[in-house]
Amino acid sequence: MEIGGIQIDWLGHSGFLIKNSKVIYIDPFSIKENLPKADYIFLTHSHYDHCSFEDIEKILGEKTKIIAPADCQSKVFRTQKEVKFEVIEENQELDLNGIKVSILPSYNIDKPFHFFGSGGVGYLIKINDVLIYHAGDTDVIPEMQKLTGYKQPGKNFIALLPVSGKFTMSHEEAVEAVKLIQPTLSIPIHYGSVVGTIEDAKEFVRLCEEEGFKATILEKI
Hints:
alpha/beta; Metallo-beta-lactamase, Chain A; seven-stranded mixed beta sheet; six-stranded mixed beta sheet
């Protein structure tokens, strides 16, 4: 889909390809061959379905820079290619040639998979007047309340939210996150392969619309 001059494509699971003048990937996993080489690859944490060495190799180019928490390093550096790698942690701010990035907390409240302080992150990426929030593997967390202020007239605020349950929010919980965040558009993620189904995504969209929020399902490319 195209929003505000930015192309946003779902790669399956939690993976996204974002394009304007730069090519940005987030958590590529089980992606197809022959996708464009990355300028930037953002990884939310080191679990195999978010930090996939095999998929990173498919999109590594000479100028690719990987932005990720420290625990992703050992997987990324398995490649024989030269890698530009920047270690980040929550509450950092980055300026990548005009692309503004905020590093945000991402963790479970009542599950053991992504405990508080384990290093997992979400990303808030600002390109021109488009804001894209990729929540990572998270539950509804208090820090989401701070995102409400990003909803501004005339600006697009897109939230990419996990809906599968078990390791992350369920689709019902993800709707509660939408109420906190107040995005202009929500897109369900983290379903269809490792855990979660298209029915989770459809229920998320239905419940969002019942609450007066716009949501849509993207077709996998």
